[in-house]
Amino acid sequence: MLLGEDEFDPDALGFTQLHQIILGFDSSDLAEELKYKSVFNLVNKPDNEGRTPLLWAADLGAAREVEILLENGAEITLMDINGYCAVSMASTIKVLKLCLKDCPLSHLNNMANPRNGSLLLSHLTIGYFGGQRMSVYDETENIQRASMLIDAGADINLGTAGGVSPLTWIAQRDFPITTKFLLDSGADVNNVCRNGITVIMQTVQRDARASLAAILSEPRDFDFALKDCDGWNLLHYLAGFGSLEVIKLFETVHVAGTDADSGVVIADSKTYLGCTPMDLAVWRFKDEYHLDRIGEEEEWWTCFKGLLDRVRESTRVSLLDEMSSTGSVTEEEAGSVSSDSEDSTDDEEFHDAVEASV
Predict the structure, then answer these.
(1) C-alpha angle with apex 30: 25 to 33, nearest 5 degrees?
(2) CB 247 within 8 A of CB 303
(3) Exposure pattern of 269-278 as b/e (b: 16+ CB <10 Å)?
(4) Which of 62, 153, 291, 327 has the fewest CB within 10 Å, making it most exposed?
(5) CA atoms within 13 A on the CB side of 42
(6) Distance (Å, rounded) from C-alpha 40 to C-alpha 118?
(7) Which residues have CB under 8 Å from 74's CB, separation 6+?
């Protein structure tokens, strides 16, 4: 029972007889009572909080009652005043399976509850309270729930009203098992939030190393040239937030690309305030920002500068391969591309630019 007998006033709470049966205040048999028309007509009647008998049964994990209500016309898409429905309230795998059987696709991807996000995201985060880590049991069961929702047609990239996908929400909180599950299930690794941030940018910013390792563990169709609303690309994030361990994760990853706005290599791309990745790295040390992630300073600089050099070289090679495959480059032009890359701004000029742009 959710309330003590002395606190229970069905009329004040808007409870019908069906609510009372589900909650255990009425010992009548649900299936037998529904044979009476007067009771049958109450099957979708909500209480004062907008909860139908089905929502209460789903929340309590009462599989038998959920099945009986659905067989007697209970509407799966009805929501309470907070935007919760039977699918979102399903507290057990068995109840969720029953609810999904008759759930229309349009409802699966309904964002009626912006606070908790999509149905997929809400089931992936059961057991996560105010920063408290999900247990391994919760995470494993959540993956089972998510798999059922995805099989039923839930949009794997639909998360919050702000455009945060389930992958980004999970990965930035460093849950590598669920991160890999979502990627293997088809989640878009280049999906961007409303502010333009990608999942890789978020994991770098949050120093979510385990999730980032899971993301980078296999070749994927990464778009490293994507920029957030301030013009920061991945390399800017690595410069401003990257720990030594995070930067080392990119040592075996093919990172390349050119800025869509300026056409320069992303290693030399500028933010909307005019900062290159090297500018931001210099500013970070100058202002002692997130230096606890640096480790040995000399080693960090060596790894970061090495990454920028590899990006420039990888981009040069990729451009040459693309030009060669289309037959649009001559030997002289190929040499020109190589020279342009080699003549990129040196460290002294980067240091001078910091004073003017940061």
Answers:
(1) 105
(2) yes
(3) bbbeeebbbb
(4) 327
(5) 19
(6) 31
(7) 43, 44, 52, 53, 54, 86
Count the Cβ atoms, other than its own, within 10 Å of residue 75: 15
CA distance 232 to 276: 9
Give me the helix-helix angle, 297-326 and 277-286, nearest 10°.
170
**Separation of alpha carbons 310 and 231, rounded Å:** 21
Cβ 191 vs Cβ 199: under 8 Å: yes
Domains recognised in the chain with CATH numbers: 1-90 (1.25.40.20), 104-218 (1.25.40.20), 223-358 (no CATH)
* pLDDT tens per residue, range 143-179: 999 999 999 999 999 999 888 999 999 999 999 999 9
Q: What is the CA radius of gyration of the chain?
A: 27
Please name which of 181, 194, 114 lies closest in space to residue 142, comparing C-alpha atoms: 181
Q: Is 308 exposed, middle or buried (0-12, 13-18, 19+ CB in 10 A)?
A: buried
Residues 319-358: pLDDT tens digits?
A: 887 777 766 555 454 444 433 434 434 444 433 433 343 4
Can you tell me whether residue 203 is helix, strand or coil?
A: helix
pLDDT, tens digit, for every residue of 261-290? 888 999 999 999 999 999 999 999 999 999
Both tokens of 102, joined, read 């008759």
Residue with tokens 């529904």: 34
Cα–Cα dist 266/223, whole Å: 11
pTM comes to: 0.84
